[in-house]
Amino acid sequence: MSEQNDRNDRNELNKQNTRSEQNARHEQNARKEQNVGHGQNDRNEENDRNGEPENRLRRELPAEVPAPAPGAGQPGQEEPRQPLTGRQRLVKGLWPPRFTRAQLIVALLLFGLGFGLAVQVASNSDTDSALRGARQEDLVRILDELDSRTQRLEDEKQGLEKQRSELQSSSDQAAEARRQTAEKERQLGILAGTVAAQGPGITLTIEDTKGTVQADMLLDAIQELRAAGAEAIQVNGVRVVAGSYFTDSDNRVSVDGNKINAPYRFKVIGKPQDLEPALNIPGGVVQTLEKEQATVTVERSDKIIVEALRQVKRPDYARSSSQ
Of 83, 127, 210, 269, whose CB has the highest number of CB atoms within 10 Å? Predict the structure, then answer.
């Protein structure tokens, strides 16, 4: 009996201890929660003091409740748009019309072109209808007139072509005649000494320190040069032509009445390969002058300029046979 009581006492004591421990834990948790609440309040008060009224308002306002989505039958809901068909898109793009200046100009041009085509088609239709209703005799007459007109046009075409050929041939002949005339005039001017000339040739220089060179010796040099193909000759600024002459007067040489002094310089235009050998042939001009103690020098050149001119002398009696 006593043992049973002792067990009961111990059980009761254990229960009391357990309840005391539970109460202590509850009190500890309550104090922790109280401390947390005080800290949160302190932080909130500090935030309010730092100028954060928005947080305070959020704490004071109730929590937001999301609005429920409207149902299918509610009036505020928009029905989904159906995709447009190709015809609807075409109509929407064409109406209301939007025109630019370029489109209006193109439209006017197309309208004018269409109107002209319509008028032409209408006129052709009238002609065709008139021919359909014509009699056989009228059709034959129209064909004859068309044949006659075609023949006249063909004859006119041939006449114009013949006239064009004649004009072309005559103009070509006239141009060729003018060209040949100008060329012959230039050649005759060179030979007559009335125009300047340039081209390849030689320069013949005769030094006469003893005064033994005479006019006939210079004339022999001119003759040799002409025989070798000289086309233009100038001696000390005097142009030598077909009628030129050399004379001796007062121990000096004159060319066409113009006195010249030594050294005698000949500017000759021609083929250098022919002119120089003609002067150096045995017993020729160079040897003759050297016998007279004169010094002769011949120099070839690709460009010799003969600028001395002669005045044009009109003949007294001779006239052109073409006049």
Answer: 269
